[in-house]
Amino acid sequence: MADKFDEFLEEVEGDIRQERLEKLWHQYGKQIVAVVVGALVLSGGYMVWQSQQHKQSQHLSEKFVGAQNLIMQGKTSEALGVMQDLSKASHKHYAVLAKFYEAYLVGQKDYKTAEEVYKTISNDHGVEKHLRDLALIFSVSLSLDNLNPEIQEKVLEDALKNLEPLAQPDQPWRHLALELIGIAAYKKNDLAKATEIFLKLAQDPEVPEAMRGRVQLMTQTLASSN
After folding, report:
1. Which of 20, 68, 74, 198 ranks highest by number of CB atoms within 10 Å?
2. Helix, strand, coil share (%) of the chain residues, nearest 5
C-alpha cells in the first residue's frame, strides 16, 4: 500500500513539474515582452524602435518578429539561431528579450545551458530588476526540476535563500517564488512548511488562475501524506 502511495506522489510531482515548466513561459512570456516594451517607452527608445528610418532598429525588429514566427511554426532550431544572434545585439532591450527566448528554447533539451542563460540575465545589473528577478525564478525552477542527488541539499538551500526576498508581499513575482519555496520544502521533506505555503497560496485570491490548479493539487497531495 505504501509503495502504491509513493508511486502516486511521484506521478503527481511529475505532472506538476511538467505543467509548471510548460505554463511558466506561456503565462509570463507576454509579460516579459510588455515589460521590455514599457522600458523602451520610458527610455524614449520606442520611437526609435518603430522608426523605419533607423535601419538597425528596423532590422532587429524584423529579425525578432521572424524568429517568433519560426517558433509558432515549430521551427525551434532556426528560431534559436536567430534569438542567439539577437541576444548579442547592441540594442540592450532586444538583447534581453532575445536571451529569455533563447533560454526557453534551449531549455527544452538542455536545462543546464538554459539555467546559465537565465543566470546571466539575473546577474546583469544593466537589466531592469523585475526582469532580473524573473530570470532568477526561471533559473531556480530549472534547478529544482533537475536535482542531482549528490548536491541536492545545497541546491535546495540556495533555492530557498534566493527565493525568500522575491516572495515578499510587495514583490511582483511573489506567487511564483512562494510556489517554488513550497516545492523546495517538499523536496527537503519539510512537509509542514510545504503545507503551510501551499495553503497560503490556495487561500490567496490574487493567485493567477493558471497557477491555482497546481496549488490545489499540491495542497491535496500534501494533505493526503500527513
Report:
1. 198
2. 80, 0, 20
Cα 101 to Cα 103: distance, rounded to the nearest angstrom: 5
Taking only the tens place, the pLDDT of each residue in 183-203 is 999 989 899 999 999 999 999
pTM, 2 dp: 0.68
Taking residue 113's Cβ as centre, other Cβ atoms within 10 Å add up to 13
**How crowded is residue 94: how many other Cβ atoms within 10 Å of its Cβ?**
22
The CA angle 180-196-149, to the nearest 5 degrees, is 45
What pLDDT does 49 receive?
A: 44
| Residue 23: predicted pLDDT | 53
Identity of the amino acid at 105: L
**Residue/partner pairs of 25-30 with CB below 8 Å, 24 or more apart:** 25/104, 26/210, 27/208, 27/210, 27/211, 28/134, 28/176, 29/100, 29/104
**C-alpha cell read off for 169:** 508581499
Write the single-letter amino acid at 24: L
Residue ranges of domains in the chain = 21-123
Q: Which three cell numbers stand for residue 56?
A: 538597425
